[in-house]
Write a structure and sequence with these properties.
The protein is an alpha+beta fold and about 800 residues long. The chain contains 30 helices and 26 strands. It binds a DNA duplex (14 and 10 nucleotides) through β16, α17 and α20.
Length: about 800
DNA sequence: GATCCTCGAGTTCA
DNA sequence: CTCGAGGATC
């Protein structure tokens, strides 16, 4: 750099920075890394500081102004910023096209179509190529002067590029916040304890209304141009698409998704294509906009009140809606978990009517401070499940109270309690609580458990309320007559609105249908009698025992009679079962009521189809030292357990042993005393004795051969995502497991292969990010064929 | 004790 | 799908 010619260097730096900006925001082809950009900007800043006389308002260093202005001035739009008519259905789009075709008497109309960003409409005024004023849309006739804030938006050029632009040019477009930037900003704000933005749209709007442009400069705002306003001292091309192309040349970002399409069919195809990509786009859109492309046609169509007749916005079903909370009720789950659910005034969100939304737990309610009577924003996040995003504070009616968890279960009246350090509150009624009983039955009968088809929620409700089902075992006691009687009584209880003049033949028909239903259900229950151990264990609904743990238990121990009598520390020999889960299993089997249910189930014909000996892999795990560690005795570390195990032959030898004998075994006196003290508790001594016996029994029956048949996928972790055409994901998972793979539910760096089916989502994205091997369905099928 | 990875549990509507 | 928490690992 030559000190003698700072002006030349300044001009060069500005050019480089502007080019970089243009390539980044308009062409989407960055040419220099961010760090390099920052370096150039710093150099320019220093040069300008040394030569203040060379600073111009359109320099890239001058984006962020200083003094907060007091208030926004009003700006009158030379040409009003119009609103657009809306279309919500295909029919309305056809009407729109038909109206134009009739008036213009022209077939094959061409439209310029582009996504409608969910941001804030603004107007930018350029005089002789320099950005002089920017305003919000306001009411369309006049808006607020937010020039200082708009200058901080890097996607907005401070001076126009190229040539041929009019002396005065107003550009219209949308300021928005890209979704990823919004998330990043919020994450940062949360960490700093700052204010979190409700959604990208509000974020963009709020950012532009900041009085201090230095705050706006920190917000990740972006911009797309979609049209023009006043044009003086020059002319624009006479079609919308060509105008957009010109704007792009002059330095404005223009949506890359814009297209020129023909006729109503073309518009609808475009609408669907964008709709499919909606979730994957980096920004929120609320629809697409169609504009008649040629200027002559536009002029001929003219305006109706304040909207052009040559353009329309075709909206997507709203993903977020406002509604009111009519009540907050709690639901009791299978484990007694009390989940608050908001009852909402019905509202259409993303195509379905939503009346309920989970509030997860009491903490969540406290965080959002949702109250009965509040207006709230409801969203169907990504998939389908509605959630309350936030409260509209301004609309809170007077006299509302913060919500609190009720002290008693609304179903059984038992106390609702919360374990130390846990997030969930639980009804303490256990199986005396009808709600928990019903949920337990529902879980038992569910598809992935015993798979009793036709036993819907309503019937569980009725059967349970009318006393036919005290426990899951009673399912296998039901007779055809029971079911028919139940149905009759249930109908009496809550009669179906009786149709006047209902005739006998109809009643007979209803009777036939009921009989048919009952027969089918009885048959389904009968089919479920043959169950795998894995499904059966899962169906019991033991806390912390889901499908995966149930499967591990079945594989390692193989026999229900063994499992149901195992002291809890032995469960810890199975990988992924720790103290918490082991105790939960022990607690379940310790309860006589549960053992009775199991006995009843077996007595009524439930038969485990795959009983076998414990897995050979278990043998290596069956040592006294491991058992001693699993008992969680204070001061007994693996090293101390090892010492005890080598000095004593078995668990019973440890009983009734004075502490000094433990010291002779090599234990420090502290550990020896702690162990002796632990043994003094009868319950502990008994647990040790029982566990020792169980250890011996297991050792006696566990086969020696630990070798497992090695499959081609041994040791590989596979994740399935998306839909497969040739089989269900479950089937594919079973086949992969048969080849030795471990099928996991989520992608991590430990994953070896991801099988991506149709419309795979975030898991596929994550796999690509982590550079994990990805198979499509064809690859999977080829592999399965190759290996049997 | 911290961190990463999984699993369990709960949830909506047609 | 998302959250919370249990288990494994360093």
């Amino acid at each position: 750099m030559s000190q003698a010619r700072p002006a030349a260097r300044i001009a060069e730096l500005r050019q480089q920075l502007e080019d970089a900006n243009y390539r980044y925001h308009v062409l989407d082809e960055p040419n220099i890394p961010d760090a390099e950009y920052d370096r150039l900007l710093r150099e320019l800043d220093e040069l300008e500081a040394a030569h203040p006389e060379l600073v111009t308002p359109d320099s890239p260093t001058q984006r962020v102004g200083n003094a907060p202005s007091g208030k926004f001035a009003e700006v009158r739009h030379a040409i009003p910023m119009l609103s657009l008519g809306n279309a919500f259905s295909d029919e309305e789009v056809h009407d729109f096209v038909r109206r134009i075709a009739e008036k213009l008497q022209r077939p094959a109309l061409k439209f310029s179509a582009e996504p409608k960003l969910d941001g804030l409409a603004i107007s930018l005024r350029y005089e002789h190529g320099a950005f002089v004023q920017g305003a919000t849309r306001g009411d369309g006739a006049s808006g607020e002067d937010v020039t200082a804030n708009l200058r901080t938006v890097k996607a907005i050029p401070l001076r126009l590029r190229g040539e041929g632009w009019p002396e005065v040019l107003e550009v219209r477009g949308e300021v928005y916040m890209p979704r990823a930037d919004f998330e990043r900003y919020n994450e940062h704000a949360r960490l700093q304890g700052g204010k979190v933005l409700a959604n990208p749209r509000n974020g963009a709007a709020g950012s532009l209304r900041q009085l201090d442009p230095r705050i706006t400069a920190q917000r990740p705002l972006a911009f797309y141009a979609y049209g023009t306003g006043l044009v003086e001292g020059g002319a624009l091309p006479d079609s919308h698409s060509a105008t957009l192309a010109k704007l792009r040349e002059w330095g404005f970002p223009v949506s890359a998704l814009g297209e020129v399409v023909e006729g109503a069919e073309g518009l609808l195809v475009y609408y669907r294509r964008i709709g499919e990509r909606r979730d994957a786009l980096p920004f929120d859109i609320d629809g697409v906009v169609y504009k008649l492309d040629d200027g002559e046609g536009q002029r001929e169509m003219g305006f109706v009140s304040r909207a052009p007749r040559w353009a329309i916005a075709h909206k997507f079903p709203a993903q977020e809606q406002a509604t009111t909370v009519e009540a907050i009720e709690i639901q009791i789950g299978r484990t007694g978990a009390a989940t608050p659910v908001a009852r909402l005034a019905p509202v259409q969100v993303a195509g379905v009517i939503v009346t309920n939304a989970t509030l997860h737990n009491a903490d969540q309610i406290a965080r959002l401070d949702v109250r009965v009577g509040d207006s709230v924003i409801v969203r169907r996040a990504g998939d389908v499940i509605p959630e309350v995003v936030g409260v509209i504070a301004e609309r809170r009616p007077d006299g509302t109270q913060p919500w609190t968890m009720p002290a008693h279960c609304p179903v059984c009246g038992s106390e609702i309690v919360r374990e130390e350090g846990e997030a969930v509150w639980r009804c303490s009624g256990e199986l005396s609580c009808p709600a928990q009983r019903k949920e337990t039955i529902r879980h038992f009968a569910s598809r992935r458990a015993m798979d009793i088809e036709g036993l819907g929620d309503r019937y569980i409700e009725d059967l349970s309320d009318l006393g036919y089902l005290q426990s899951v075992a009673d399912l296998y006691k039901l007779t055809l007559d029971d079911l028919l009687e139940m149905k009759r009584r249930a109908d009496e209880r809550k009669p179906v609105p009786a149709e006047a003049g209902s005739t006998t033949p109809e009643t007979a028909k209803a009777g036939k249908i009921a009989t048919r239903w009952a027969e089918n259900l009885i048959e389904a229950i009968d089919r479920s009698r043959a169950a795998t151990l894995e499904r059966f264990l899962f169906a019991l609904g033991i806390q912390h025992v889901g499908e995966s743990t149930a499967k591990a238990l079945a594989q390692w121990f193989g026999d229900l009679q063994l499992i149901r009598r195992l002291p809890w520390p032995l469960f810890k020999r199975v990988p992924d079962i720790g103290g918490e889960v082991a105790r939960s299993l022990g607690h379940f089997f310790d309860q006589p009521g549960n053992q009775q249910v199991i006995d009843d189930l077996l007595a009524r014909g439930v038969a485990i189809t795959d009983t076998h000996l414990p897995s050979g892999r278990l043998r290596a795990e069956l040592t006294l030292s491991k058992l001693l560690v699993d008992l969680e005795i204070p001061k007994i570390t693996p090293v101390r357990a090892e010492q005890l195990a080598s000095a004593f032959a078995n668990a019973s030898a440890l009983l009734d042993t004075p502490a000094h004998n433990f010291v002779s075994a090599g234990l420090p006196s502290e550990s020896a005393n702690a162990f002796a003290a632990w043994l003094e508790d009868d319950a502990n001594a008994q647990l040790l004795s029982r566990s020792g016996e169980a250890l011996g029994t297991l050792l006696a029956i566990t086969p020696e051969d630990a070798a497992e048949a090695g499959g081609p996928l041994d040791g590989k972790t596979v994740v399935l995502t998306g839909g497969l055409a040739s089989m269900s994901r479950d089937e594919a998972g079973a086949k992969l497991e048969a080849l030795g793979a471990k099928v996991a539910g989520s992608v991590s760096k430990k994953t070896h292969i991801v099988v991506a089916g149709e419309s795979a989502g975030s898991k596929l994205a994550k796999a690509q990010e982590l550079g994990i091997e990805i198979w499509d369905e064809a690859r999977l099928l080829a592999f399965l064929v190759e290996h049997g």
